Amino acid sequence: MYLNQNQEKREHGMHKQQMKAVDIYEALKEQKVDISYTTVCKAVRQLNKQSKEAYIKQEYKLGDVCEFDWGEVKLYINSDKPTVYQLAVFTTAKGNFRYARLFRSQKTECFLEAHSLFFDYIGGAYKTMTYDNMKIAVKRFVSCTEKEPTDELLKLSLYYGFQYRFCNIRSGNEKGHVERSVEYIRRKTFARKDTFSSLDEANEYLLKRLEELNALPKEGYDGKSPYDVLAAEKPFLLPKMPKYHSSRITEARLINTLLFQWIKTDILFLIILWDILLQ
Questions:
Q1: Phi, psi angles (nearest 5°) of residue 278
Q2: From CA 95, how far away is CA 61, in angstroms rounded?
Q3: Which of 49, 92, 192, 224 has its CA 20 to 30 A from that of 141?
Q4: Can you spell out the DSSP letters for 151-213?
Q5: Range in 33-47, 90-104, 132-146, 238-252 with the lowest mean pLDDT
Q6: Please, what is the Cα angle at 129 between 229 and 245, to 5 degrees?
Q7: With bands split at pLDDT 50, 70 and 90, how would you rate the model's confidence at 177?
Q8: Which CATH number is correct for 65-236, 3.40.50.720, 3.40.50.2300, 3.30.420.10, 3.40.50.1110?
Q9: Are 77 and 194 in contact (CB under 8 A)?
Q10: What residues are paired with 238 via a beta bridge?
Q11: Partners of 188 in the β-ladder
């Protein structure tokens, strides 16, 4: 069943939301199916052959670094056709605590709202936020290694008090936590369920799944969960601020003119005359 679902996802261009062997194994165990992980791996290997990746683990100070990135996810929201939604993902470098939020676009106001929701959720801000060279964050390249932040990122950093850092070009590994988190959240959350009645329902489901995942003990953390590490980091976070509110300002101009009336008798098209009065 799960392999068929993976096939359907590939056919719909949703290959990044497939269930991996460990996800299928966990789902089968929840259904009380007596099967070994090795057997599941052998079945999945017939369809996909993936190489292992190696990572160098770095040490981070408490409350020091958090990484941000955008990802995409295809969901059925009040529709029988999949629609692409934007996934704003935050990952703490110290404890791998993950937070995410779905948006319809990657506009500046979505970028700002995502940060405001995240900082409010954890009760503070990290001292350094890491970004890649996304247009929302980088205004222009001063040199190969120096970038100028956008005005909105600068205002946001001044409000919360954090420093920002940009990755080098084509060096996504410099924020490897969040690079893996986008794939991890997309798979662990939306591989099992991808149909919702509204965006709010999808975000509620996303937050619930993240709470469950963040509560699981992690290898290499002395049996601690991301929630446990976050609790240890909170005294070192920047102070909690009121939510940062953002909006898109649009200037709409009304032309004070007399519109025309056009009557075509055989079809009876009528456009009524009126004056647009400016208050």
A1: -90, 125
A2: 10
A3: 92
A4: HHHHHHHHHHT-EEEEPPTT-GGGGHHHHHHHHHHHHHHHTT--EESSHHHHHHHHHHHHHHH
A5: 238-252
A6: 100
A7: low
A8: 3.30.420.10
A9: no
A10: 125
A11: none
Q: Where are the alpha helices (DSSP H) in the chain?
A: 2-11, 21-30, 37-45, 108-122, 151-160, 176-190, 199-214, 226-233
This model's pTM is above 0.85 = no
Amino acid code (one letter) for 37: Y
3-state helix, strand, coil in the chain (%, to 5): 35, 20, 45
Both tokens of residue 113?
């709202």
Contacts of 27 by beta carbon, 8 Å cutoff, 6+ apart: 2, 19, 192
How far apart are the C-alpha atoms of 143 and 260, rounded to whole Å?
Answer: 55
Rg for the chain (alpha carbons), in Å? 24
Residue type, 60: Y
**Pairing between strand 65-77 and 128-131?**
parallel
Question: Where in the chain is CATH 3.30.420.10?
Answer: 65-236
Cα Dmax for the chain: 83
Tokens in use for 214?
Answer: 């963040």
Please determine, for residue 251, whether its predicted confidence score (pLDDT) is greater than 80: no
